[in-house]
Design goal:
The protein is mainly α. Helices cover 49% and strands 3% of the residues. The chain has a three-stranded antiparallel sheet, with no helix packed on it. A hairpin with an 8-residue loop joins strand 4 and strand 5. The longest helix has 20 residues.
Length: 644
């Protein structure tokens, strides 16, 4: 047994409590890459708004901080240079006043000229076309008329994953309008820098389907290229009256999206485009102006690291996990009061009423759910709801009432797919696979909301906890749904015992959730699924007692060992083993020893590789993961040790 575990738990708890915000929540920054701050600058140029001198300085500071060792920018901190991100950062820095010879961006200028900006991925072609730095002739058509197809057709956007659907809805409106910002002197200069052989002589149409291989995860399929060809034909002979009707319909949908999300949109990726659409339609549009003001809600900034635009806000998500972790240290000073404040915050974030018009927006009823961010966001998620329920129940039965739990159960089950697994925001709508239609070449598995190991396991655990503490909220139908989820989770397990994750790196993350799910369904150590999963984890424990998985396995689909142990992944592995009741105390002790030795004097753990991911290629750093997951592992270890 590791005697230092309890002092380490105390230090970790004190540090986490210091991070609690005034409203009772725990929320850490979700760090992505320079793409969003760059688009934030580009949008302000499009709408003719100048950033303050402080904001301009902080954006440039972040560009400096987020550069790769070669002076370029990638989709994440650990990857190679990316033409798309580097081009957007270069243009944004130039619009902020940086000279082409500025050391900040001079390597990017040389890189862009060498690699040929004409081969930038489609999102880059689109953004550059908006800025009048590219021709719409070089952008494959994004037809607004697609939204008028019958919804029973599998290709209808209502069947797409919600993030993809909303991004391309706004892109279609802007493409249909063929809007381009005015050619200013600085735009004329940037044209010459991006296209040294002459902007007017560039073969935009000939490079419509030419893309830099190094930027691609999912190369456009043959069928997608056929669809593009048909779309070009339709675009050439489209009816202006019909297009105007389609654009007006999309604008109405954008208004609904803004009004139902406190004018934030589901994410800043689509939110920036939504603002551009409304501004092009009417620069004084009240919803557009409110959305422009609400962009600050996505921003984290300071003088040291600069201005970052987060890919997501995570108040409910982080608070749910923090409460679960703190419940294992409930007797320590300050925990009870902090947990009560966090529970009050979390209760207030549940969506308790349906949104009028959600069906017309292709949504499921949001009532009863929790969002990743907070109730203001308007986009509840199945596993966010599950982790919120588990956090509240870990605080005590009095933390939540049966009516709220019943509504939460109802929302989670509305996200269950026909195969028994759970999607994220919605259930899967198309029986036909749509990944061949994926137009976002840099990302994968982004076309439909399919069943995920993490969502299924979280919902199973939450439903099981509801049945234990409030049996009345789980009836025969819910019990049958749980059995189907357990069956899907077992079918998703690989023959070697692991589960592949989708929202974290990668097999360790998936296996942590997989074990949680089947254990919540009643499986013990003698269950083959639990036994093989635990053995898979034990076989990958490193000599120093920790676990480490390299992020590259997210896109290769296989386990890739990291060359160093990772604190967050080690905590996931330990939580899985401890939660399963595994008896290999020698291995568990070595894992706990690793966490104790890695802890810093202030009770925190050091920053390492990004542990979150989405759409296979976009790595994310969840800042609080390295605090509450190790704390939870130490607390569960102490509970098991006391019990034994």
């Amino acid at each position: 047994m590791i005697d230092e575990a309890r002092p380490a738990l105390k230090r970790a708890t004190e540090h986490l409590l210091d991070l609690q915000t005034d409203d009772g929540s725990f929320e850490g920054e979700v760090v992505w890459c320079a793409m969003l701050p760059a688009q934030y600058v580009l949008l302000h140029h499009v709408v003719g708004r100048q950033l303050s001198s402080v904001r301009r300085r902080r954006v440039l500071r972040y560009f400096q901080q987020s550069r790769l060792p070669d002076g370029l920018w990638g989709l994440h901190d650990h990857g190679p240079a990316n033409l798309f991100v580097t081009a957007l950062v270069y243009v944004a820095a130039r619009l902020l006043g940086a000279a082409p010879t500025d050391p900040l961006i001079e390597p990017a200028r040389r890189f862009l000229q060498k690699e040929n900006v004409l081969t930038i991925p489609s999102w880059g072609k689109f953004w550059l076309a908006l800025l009048n730095l590219y021709s719409w002739r070089g952008v494959n058509p994004l037809l607004p008329e697609l939204w008028l197809l019958p919804r029973r057709i599998p290709l209808h956007p209502s069947n797409w994953y919600c993030h993809t659907r909303l991004i391309y809805m706004s892109m279609a409106a802007l493409y249909g309008l063929k809007f381009q910002a005015p050619v200013t002197p600085v735009i004329r200069e940037i044209r010459q820098e991006l296209f040294p052989d002459g902007f007017d002589d560039a073969d935009f149409a000939g490079h419509r389907n030419r893309l830099r291989d190094a930027d691609l995860y999912a190369k456009p399929s043959r069928w997608l290229n056929v669809a593009y060809g048909l779309a070009r034909l339709a675009d050439r002979f489209h009816s202006r009256r019909l297009r105007a009707r389609c654009t007006a319909m999309i604008i109405r949908r954008i208004r609904w999206e803004l009004q139902s999300s406190d004018h934030t949109s589901i994410s800043p990726v689509s939110g920036l485009l939504n603002i551009a659409v409304l501004w092009v339609h009417d620069p004084q549009d009240p919803d557009g102006l409110q959305a422009l003001a609400r962009l600050d809600g996505w921003i984290w900034e300071d003088d040291e690291a600069g201005l970052r635009v987060a890919g997501a806000r995570s108040g409910s998500w982080d608070t749910g996990f923090a409460l679960q972790a703190l419940s294992t240290a409930a007797t320590l000073d300050g925990v009870a009061g902090a947990a009560q404040r966090a529970a009050e915050y979390l209760r207030a974030q549940q969506i308790r009423v349906s949104f009028e018009g959600y069906r017309d927006a292709y949504r499921i009823d949001p009532r009863g759910g929790w969002c990743f961010a907070g109730g203001w966001h308007g986009w509840p998620v199945t596993d966010c709801s599950a982790e919120a329920v588990l956090g509240l129940l870990a605080t005590g039965r009095e933390a939540v009432d049966s009516t709220a739990l019943s509504e939460a159960v109802g929302f989670m089950l509305r996200g269950q797919n026909k195969d028994g697994g759970f999607g994220t925001y919605e259930r899967q709508k198309s029986v036909v696979g749509l990944e061949w239609l994926n137009p976002a070449e840099m990302f994968g598995d982004s076309m439909t909301d399919f069943s995920h190991v993490e969502c299924t396991a979280s919902c199973l655990e939450a439903l099981s906890a509801c049945r234990k503490h409030y049996p009345g909220v789980i009836d025969a139908a819910e019990t049958a749904a749980m059995a189907r989820a357990d069956e899907w989770l077992r079918d998703a397990q690989r023959s070697d015992g692991a589960w592949r994750g989708f929202w974290g790196v990668n097999f360790i993350y998936g296996t942590y959730f997989g074990i949680r799910g089947v254990v919540a369904s009643g499986a013990g150590l003698d269950d083959p699924a639990v036994r093989s999963a635990c053995q898979w984890l034990l076989d990958r424990q490193r000599d120093d007692g920790g676990w480490g998985e390299h992020y590259s396995g997210c896109w290769t689909g296989r386990y890739v060992a990291h060359d160093t142990s990772q604190v967050i992944q080690s905590a996931w592995a330990l939580l899985a083993l401890l939660g399963a009741g595994h008896q290999d105390w020698a291995a568990i002790d070595r894992g706990i020893r690793f966490l104790v030795d890695a802890q810093q004097d202030d009770g925190s753990w050091p920053r390492q590789d990004m542990a979150g991911v989405f759409f296979r290629t976009a790595l994310l750093e969840y800042v609080l993961y390295r605090q509450y997951f190790p704390l939870h592992a130490l607390g569960l270890y102490e509970q098991r040790r006391a019990g034994s």
